[in-house]
Each structure stands twice: as C-alpha cells, then as structure tokens.
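Researcher: Going back to the complex we discussed earlier. I've cleaned up the inputs and rechecked each line, so this should be the final set. Can you rerun the prediction on the complete assembly and write out the structure?
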Amino acid sequence: AQKITQTQPGMFVQEKEAVTLDCTYDTSDQSYGLFWYKQPSSGEMIFLIYQGSYDEQNATEGRYSLNFQKARKSANLVISASQLGDSAMYFCAMPRGGTGRRALTFGSGTRLQVQP
Amino acid sequence: ETGVTQTPRHLVMGMTNKKSLKCEQHLGHNAMYWYKQSAKKPLELMFVYSLEERVENNSVPSRFSPECPNSSHLFLHLHTLQPEDSALYLCASSRLTESSYNEQFFGPGTRLTVL
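Model: Rerun complete. Updated structure for the full complex:
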C-alpha cells in the first residue's frame, strides 16, 4: 500500500522568500505519480503540480516546482517568491492504485504561514 | 456552472437526524469520490464510484450510505451519526485513464457538525 509522509506540521516563511515543503513516499509500483494540493482556510483542495515517476525533468508550474528524487523517494514542493496568499495547508498525495480506482492517499499536510 | 459543487456548505445535525450531502460535477469525469477530513488527520477515502461501480473503504460505518445515480451526481446519506463524525466532507471527481495521472478536482466541501 502507498504511504505518504510529511514531517513538517508547520512552516513559516518571510514574504518573497522561497520555501521547501517535504514529502517522502513509499510504494511498490514501478509507475506512479505524485500530486501536491493546496487547501486554504475555505476548505477547497486546489491542485498545484504533478510529477510522474518516469518524467525525466522535475515538474514546474509558475512559482511551484518539484524537487523529485526518485532514489530517495522524495518529492519536495518548492514555492519561490512566497506571497501572503500562499498561507494554507499543503498536501502531498499519490494514487492508491488497485481496487481503489486511483483514489488518492494523502499525507498529513504542512501548514505554511507567510509572514509580511 | 463548471467544476465540482457541493451542497450544503455547512450542516448541523443531531444524532437522530437523517440528512444527505450532494455533489455534482460538470467536467465529464467518470469517477467520483467522497473523502473525510477530520481535525489533525489526513484525508481519508470513504467511497469511490467509477463506471457505476462502487469501491469503498471497509472501515466506513454503515451510518454513511453513498448513492451515485449517474456519472455527474454523488450523494452521501447520513443517519444516526455520532459527534466524532463531525468533519469536512470533500467530494472529488476525475477522469480515469491507464496512466498514473489522475488529477482529482475537489468541491468546496461540506462542514458537518453533529451535536
């Protein structure tokens, strides 16, 4: 079964600085994907970025990038030039596979607070 | 209207009440999901519907009953709930493919409080 571990319950970052949110995973699948979602206080989960296990380059989406280290089974999210609106919960996730019809397994999340 | 919608956004109910949560997706997806998010716990998958087939997490109590009348609508029927069922209930949808890319689109959630 897939397992996602996020070891940082909370993080602080100064506005305009970069921050790295950690995510490690465990899976026996050869082909898999990693997702990052953002959850503001409103509750809605917002998709940020995706990394496929066979993608040769680290994924980037605007200010978001993934530091994907397959051998270490880590997929850390890097947010550059932090903004006050980045304050939220951030979740790393991967498809469950099998009979779960690819529902997602989520980590416990990291609460990011951006300070002015 | 686009995306995934959920109603109601907030619900307060007593333990003897019966209520239903509704989810609707306008994205042409073929799979829908119910997740439960309790305080200080990771999101937990409750149910999956894909191609009219239901797959569920065996730890979900029978007081939660899903219904998926078609690929666009998903309900979660609630009865005789317990206070520990208070949580944010999130609906999501996706288009299943053979690849591992399965981006799920989430609704805004229903904040449920059981008194």
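Model: Worth noting: The interface with chain A takes residues 31, 33, 41-43, 45, 48, 50, 55, 88, 90, 92, 94, 96, 99-109, 111 of chain B (CB under 8 Å).
Researcher: Good, that matches what I expected from the previous run.
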